[in-house]
């Protein structure tokens, strides 16, 4: 279904279509309607760009970077290097754009402005009013002729493939033609110098050079080479210059929309956007140029002061946050080290207690085993022989704690095993021990688990012996 559009929306539709490359009118209209017919927002949303990079002047003149594949927003500036078919109603759209621009453009020379000399006195105003119809007729004829020419022969320019090369070539050509005395030209693209000015919070002076204009040579040889002009610009601004005959210069020209040459534009960051705050068109004497630049810079210095203060505040806050973060991390690290030390100490203490408990349990098990062994030993001790029996050996036994035991054994019947279990069955005897004679001192070779069990006579014990019990756990 065909939609009726106002002249303003028709112009916006033409702009969006030529910038986006979308041939489907209904699709373009739907995109614009989603963004409330804001061409700038729609373009950046369609191209996936950051809208904060967009900067406009006080007169809504775009000054954002013009790089490969990018273009201006306020009006169609050039075709892409690949030709796209025009929509069916493009002529109607061009007609509406023509009348809209003719009636709304403030640079056509219909009314007195900074670029058109204001009339003075009654006679001057009478001459101005009487010539106004002729001015309207001439401007209308000029605009209509340009409009018809653009319809018949639309302008095609390839995309900028080497913007830096355009700028460097211009600087070299300028130095060869006019010599080295001139303000320092920034040897980079328009996008780069905009970013540099924004980063350094400095004014940016843009110079568009047209070698075919009659005032260009005079301006370069008299004004730009003036020592006071050079010193002032180098001290207060970044300066970027390029020829409008190059692709990079042409694209910047389409963004700034100059009326004549030489052309200077002063750009500064204003409310977080790079904005054109001053335009100087036509030849100007060095003294007048300095006066204009001083006035514009003075009027807009407050924006840079505010931006610097804001940046310093943000830097201070960032530094403060970093210090706080460092202090927090240091405190956190110290707390973590304390917690780690506590954890290690706790683990060590737990390990120590575990080892103690294991030792205690082992000792308890050992005691339980020895108690059981003592109880078993009682059952293995043979009966004591009578005193009047032959072959008796009376043995006096001294325990490690000083207790003394005495008992009779058969020298040829009883063995070291019987003697060992007799000693082990006593409550005060050690759990692990050895038996030894007192004099001469020698160890009696028997321990539980030994297969050989010699008799007392076989180990050399006589009718009366004194033995010592040696505690192996002592």
UniProtKB/TrEMBL annotation:
GO CC, alphabetical:
endoplasmic reticulum
| Keywords recorded for this protein, A-Z | Coiled coil
Q: Give GO terms: molecular function aspect only.
A: ubiquitin binding
The Gene Ontology biological process annotation of the record reads:
ERAD pathway
Superkingdom of the organism of origin: Eukaryota
Where do the UBX domain residues begin and end?
388-469
Asked whether the keyword Coiled coil is assigned, the reply is yes
**InterPro entries to which the protein is assigned, alphabetical:** FAF1_2-like_UAS, Thioredoxin-like_sf, UAS, Ubiquitin-like_domsf, UBX_dom, UBX_domain-protein
> What SUPFAM superfamilies is this protein classified in?
Thioredoxin-like, Ubiquitin-like
Matching entries from PANTHER family are given as: FAS-ASSOCIATED FACTOR 2, FAS-ASSOCIATED PROTEIN
* Name the UniProt record assigns to this protein: UBX domain-containing protein
Q: Which species is listed as the source?
A: Daphnia sinensis
